[in-house]
Fold this sequence. Notes:
Elements: H1 2-40, H2 45-48, H3 63-69, H4 72-105, H5 109-122, H6 130-139, H7 147-154, H8 159-170, H9 174-182, H10 187-195, H11 200-215, H12 219-224, H13 232-237, H14 245-279
Amino acid sequence: MAEPVRKARRALKSRQLAHFCLVAVVAVVILLPLFWLLISSLKTSGEYMAYPIQFFPSRLRWSNYLGILFYPPFTFALLRTFGLGISTAAITCITSAMAGYAFARLGGRSNRNLFVVVIFLLILPNIVMLIPQFVVYAKIKLVNTYWPWYLAALGATNPLYIFMYRQFFLGFPKELEEAAEMDGASPFQVFFKVFLPNAKPAMATVLIFAFNAVWGDYIMPTIYLNDPSRLLGTFLASGFSPQYRTIFLAATVIYILPVFLLFLLIQKNIQKGMIFSGLRG
């Protein structure tokens, strides 16, 4: 009996080692471009363009970061995009949660029919809606403003977020809702006092998705703003002169950081939200 057990343990360790090596290779493939970006952002333009390739700078030039942070067009675009992303993401978290709560806890045939529409919109490419939306916003004179972003957030227009909240709220015990109703709570009070405070995993997931949708967006600023460079993604897409290439790389690192840090802060809640939203039907 001892020999088969040892063989099974050796086989298990071999599989674990193989899995570890596979994960390590994937991690290197993913992280190597980011490492190269970070190292290159600390070089001079001459070192960056040198041939043969110079992997490491002669000294770390943090002045690249100071130069771009104190460049007013970049700074204003950074603050403007961050403010727009956080505010619209916060609004989206609430409005999508309200829609998800309605689909999860308020019964009826019409409710089910409307949810079928949400599922249909979930598989419909967003690009299909761009022209109709632009025509509507142009007719009500909201082009070249930030209202298209805020109206989209207020209207809970992303069916994925509604679906995630709906799946999450389906798992709430019916007794919690019944106890609140027996105390005289209205559906709005039940939502704001019982469901929403306990939906932090789903809220964290929607928050990072909604923020990244604004932070990394290139299409909407190009369509709705006369000067797309007012937002950071389109500002960076406009490019820099060759002599400022390493400063552009520093700007790219700064562009990545907010989403990365936000994900690190709420990653546990995101994992819970994704798991629970996917398991409940």
